[in-house]
Amino acid sequence: IFELRDISFLASPTVLLNDVCINRCAILLQMDISNLTVATFSTHDLPRIHYNATDNMLWCNSSWTHYWEKDVWVLPIYRASDVDHWVLCVIHLSRKELHLFDSLAECKPWKHDVKDIMKFICRLLIVACYHNKEVYIDLDGWVTQPLTVTLQTNGYDCSVWILANIIAVLHRQQITGL
């Protein structure tokens, strides 16, 4: 499931994990910690929205999660900027809440992400409807809750914090107790 390069990333205490490590670890965590209310998405799903991927591409890459049956969506996000950084959005559909986790406690970049995240939610629900899945679409009244707790003091732990928060969500917790 992991190539040697990815295993070396996972084995190193001072390396920022790549997308392969984040995505495959998230899948393994989802398989190990059974929570039927959570859909875990790939780090590639939000960029697909940003670059206007076709509905068919969105469906092919996300339908395996059965997201239309889940109340909580976990969306890891990669931010390429001056400092490469991983953040996490936990989407609570029935409560209309976006929980935004950033281990560096940065608030400003979320303004750009929230628009794309809402477009992500809308597009995936529309695609599910197109495939005859029963979904309720209401994009009014959503709120964001930044979970801005400074936990990271270096340039590489953010990927571990993302995985720790995925574990917390799968265990029905809001934020890690680490």
Q: Can you tell me the residue ranges where pLDDT is under 50 for at least 5 consecutive residues?
A: none
Order of helices and strands: HHEHHEEEHEH
Q: Give the integer mean of the pLDDT values.
A: 89
Strand order of the largest sheet: 1-2-3-4-5
Overview of the structural elements:
- Helices cover 39% and strands 16% of the residues.
- With 178 residues, the chain is an alpha/beta fold.
- Helix 2 runs parallel beside helix 6 and helix 4 crosses helix 5 (110-130).
- The mean pLDDT is 89.
Q: What is the secondary structure topology, with strand pairs?
A:
Blueprint: H1 4-11, H2 19-32, E1 38-40, H3 45-50, H4 55-62, E2 72-79, E3 85-92, E4 97-101, H5 110-130, E5 143-147, H6 158-170
Parallel strand pairs: 1-2, 4-5
Antiparallel strand pairs: 2-3, 3-4
Helix pairs in contact: 2-6, 4-5
